[in-house]
Amino acid sequence: KAGVTQTPRYLIKTRGQQVTLSCSPISGHRSVSWYQQTPGQGLQFLFEYFSETQRNKGNFPGRFSGRQFSNSRSEMNVSTLELGDSALYLCASSSVAGGGDTQYFGPGTRLTVL
Amino acid sequence: QKEVEQNSGPLSVPEGAIASLNCTYSDRGSQSFFWYRQYSGKSPELIMFIYSNGDKEDGRFTAQLNKASQYVSLLIRDSQPSDSATYLCAVEKRTYKYIFGTGTRLKVLA
Fold first, then answer.
1. Any chain B CB within 8 A of the CB of A28?
2. N or C: fewer beta carbons within 10 Å in chain A?
3. How many helices (H) and strands (E) does chain B have?
């Protein structure tokens, strides 16, 4: 079974721009969660989508948004990029929403904001 | 107080020794506990999970959970240089969110 895929793998943007990241979960998985990983803060939960609905949201500003499509693929958008948004963005998929199942991570998208 | 706390390390152990990694959490209602391994520049990969108090063994790995004391640990027996990585503890809260610790860096010395 193919794993979680994320595109693009690397991205360089400048302050003020916006960016869209994509995640395709493991076949059959309907839950996709997004995380931001930085050296100082570690892995921080952004949001979770299940069956095209946002189920949970972390403590991030409204500039961070996401959506999920009927095929369970998910996109994350960050508008008005700031230098502090430079991070590794990871998505993880699981078969059920929220708890009760383990999450499997994709390879991540490394975003650099200049 | 952070919701999930881990000693950042590095924890250095000689090859063949037992590495002991610890994690404490603050939400008593937390339900599930996970250990992930992350190599530098890579994404986290699941090692094992534990739901019930006690020990759970999987090969060279043993997870230990003590809900009364709110800690979970990971023991790695016969540590190998290839085990050198950052180990992340994750806790599933009642709100069905996963909270990660900042990780413990393990170095296994050949």
1. no
2. N
3. 0, 11
